[in-house]
Amino acid sequence: MIVIPNDNDQVSPPTGTKTVAGVRPSGALSDYTSRLMSSRPGIMAQGGTLFEELGFYYVGPIDGHKLDTLVPVLENVRDMPGNKPVLIHVKTEKGKGYPPAEASLDKYHGVARFDVGTGKQHKSVSQTPSYTSVFSKALIAEAEHDRKVVAITAAMPGGTGLNIFGERFPKRCHDVGIAEQHAVTMAGGMECEGYKPFCCIYSTFLQRGYDQLIHDVSIQKLPV
């Protein structure tokens, strides 16, 4: 088995950075480790240690944009004797080589038809508002007259419409990063403290939080 993580420091938007609403993904552990790494650069183990402890033969990191280096590595790993799983750590830059994408990383995660020269996307204009925009406006309207309304997202503020909510209520919009489990349990905990949380997660990613949805919200009969 060969595992190749595409390490470009982001999901659809860059990870660990503020959204357009000024909302930064929260998390005590990530905050602590970030401070620890920046204050004492030599404290962390070499990159492959974690994967080696998991049983992988670690190769990397490798520049994923240098094919004259990457291809021979792939061929060598393919022809290795034995059956130990291998992890090839590939570093890349999102949008590498295309200036419009490099300058606007979150806009080219999923694209419509666009002009290659300018990068301008040609999106069809719908005659009806999208469900996301209707939801976002409705949530803002509720929050305008109820200070207990809060919103939670798992690294998808733009796709769920919470980026607009966050622009209006930056202190009431929480991005927990790629941690759907935490988002669901956090919503349950906030409801127990008297808040009215709206936990917005794509259905395909909510599978990561099904246990928490059942155990921490549904069984407790919490109106999240």
Automatic annotation (TrEMBL):
Region (Disordered) location: 1-23
KW Magnesium (keyword) present: yes
Keywords from the UniProt entry: Magnesium, Thiamine pyrophosphate, Transferase
Superkingdom of the source species: Eukaryota
Residues annotated as transmembrane: none
Keyword Transmembrane helix: no
SMART domains documented for this protein: Transket_pyr
Protein name: Transketolase-like pyrimidine-binding domain-containing protein
Organism: Chondrus crispus (Carrageen Irish moss)
